[in-house]
Write a structure and sequence with these properties.
It holds the Pfam family BPD_transp_2. It is found in: Cell membrane. With 287 residues, the chain is mostly helical. It is built from twelve helices and two strands. Helix 10 runs antiparallel to helix 11.
């Protein structure tokens, strides 16, 4: 039971790193980015390519960060003409990008699943209350906690975060003050994409790298965002932790019904809180 709960925390931490960027881009910038999972997959393949040493792991993280920033900036430019159109148009464009990226990754790395080793010194296990648990997953829980605090402080307690929130609330007024709205949107998009790509590297030792992983994690991230509420960092964290526990415990207790349990939890939250746990009608109907 303890191991299952810890696994839920580890998966929840990873889902937060992935989903918080999607939540900010969709909830604050009102752009539906279905290429988010493809960025995660790209990071996972980078982790597989450079695995085996601390230098390789750090190099994979650095390349994923740079690649994520560049991809986010490019996606922001591509979706800019669609900002005032329906989410369906954005979804079709970014889904097409996701398919292209996934195919390019298959061409580059093949279509066989690849395993990703944890960095040296983190590939062992520790004893917790008599149970043996992987060291890497414990570190991942800590990384998720630190990142959650950092993102919350930046969004809620800094001038940069205030500028982002102001841009969402009244873009015309912010533009009248001399701020380039497109730059703010591109920055949020780039940072969200950076988080998705680095989450792929961090998640490599857990999920590996394989075709189809992008769709799996995208669905989980969308569930987290809907449960937590659009544009809410706190909601992304709570939603990720809930889904991490539900998914892990469901696979442990009732593996054949794990997917049903996951979406039953989503349905229950939507019935009780249609805008998510920490969302608001304003964020849900930003368009």
């Amino acid at each position: 039971m303890l191991v299952s709960v810890l696994n839920g925390l580890a998966i929840g931490s990873l889902l937060f790193i992935l989903a918080v960027g999607l939540s900010l881009v969709f909830g604050m910038m009102d752009v539906l980015n279905l290429a988010h999972g493809a960025l995660f997959l790209g990071g996972a393949y980078l982790g597989a390519a450079f695995a085996g040493s601390w230098g390789g792991f750090l190099a994979a993280l650095a390349l994923a960060a740079v690649g994520g920033l560049a991809a986010g900036a490019l996606l922001s430019l591509m979706t800019e003409p669609l900002r005032k159109r329906s989410h369906l148009d954005q979804a079709l464009l970014t889904l097409g990008v996701a398919f292209v990226v996934a195919e390019l990754l298959i061409i580059a790395f093949g279509d066989d699943p690849l395993s990703v080793a944890a960095p040296p010194a983190l590939d062992g296990s520790v004893s917790i209350l008599g149970a043996t648990y992987p060291t890497y997953r414990l570190v991942l829980i800590g990384v998720g906690a630190v990142l959650a605090l950092a993102v919350y402080l930046v969004v809620e307690r800094t001038r940069v975060g205030a500028l982002v929130r102001a841009t969402v609330a009244d873009r015309e007024m912010v533009a009248a003050l001399g701020v380039d709205n497109r730059m703010v949107q591109a920055t949020v998009f780039a940072v969200g994409s950076l988080l998705a790509a680095t989450a792929g590297v961090l998640g490599g030792p857990i999920y590996g790298a394989r075709p189809g992983l992008d769709a799996t994690v995208l669905i989980l991230a969308l569930v987290v965002v809907v449960i937590g509420g659009l544009g809410s960092v706190r909601g992304a964290l709570v939603g990720a932790l809930i889904i991490g526990q539900v998914d892990t415990l469901g696979r442990w207790l009732l593996p054949e019904f794990a997917s049903f349990i996951l979406f039953a939890a989503l349905a229950l939250v939507l019935v009780l809180r249609p805008h998510g746990l920490f969302g608001s009608p304003a964020s849900a109907g930003a368009r």
